[in-house]
Every structure is written in structure tokens, then in C-alpha cells.
Amino acid sequence: MSATERTEKTEPAIEHPPAGHAPGTVPPSRPIRVVLAGLRIPFWSLVWFFVKAAIAAVPAVLILALIAGALVAAVIQVLGWFGGLSLVKLLGLW
User: Fold this and answer.
1) Which of 14, 27, 85, 93 is the most buried (most CB within 10 A)?
2) What is the pTM of this model?
3) How does DSSP assign 24-93, residue by residue?
4) Which residues contact residue 20 at a Cβ distance below 8 angstroms, ignoring those fewer than 6 apart?
5) Contact at 8 Å (CB) between 27 and 18?
């Protein structure tokens, strides 16, 4: 096979589309609005997802409670340095 025969059988170079677009399509000039009409999710798959989400939320709530408690304690401590404010006076227990 000669060199000219090999070049005749090769396919032309394929032009690559812009990122995110399928070959042979032209990107729209403006965004296309899409409305989702429905979503089919099996019931037990959805139940299992919510059970896992609830279990995952427990440590998150504990961590947030610890952070909030530390912030409140720090604010009370700082206010105590600047005027003798204590938790007892703040809550009206004294």
C-alpha cells in the first residue's frame, strides 16, 4: 500500500465541540429554561435515604451544640472581664 492510499482512507479531523456540548450540537446563545414535570423514586429507597440522613444529622447537631456552647461561654467570660458580669447575674439568679 502506498503513502497516497493510506492518506485517502483516513477520516477527516473531527472538530471538538466546546466543553459541555455533545458533538454536532451548537451551544445555545442564551440559557434554555427547563421545567421538571415529575420524579420517580421508589418509596423504600426514599425512606432509606431519609433514615440515613437522620442518622447522619445526630453527630452534626452534637458538634453544632458544642460550638454554640463554647461561643456562649466565651462571650460570658469576656463580658465578665469587662464589668463583673457572671452567668448568675446574667440569668438573674442572684
Assistant:
1) 85
2) 0.45
3) T----SSPPP---------HHHHHHHHHHHHHHHHHHHHHHHHHHHHHHHHHHHHHHHTT---HHHHTT-
4) 27
5) yes
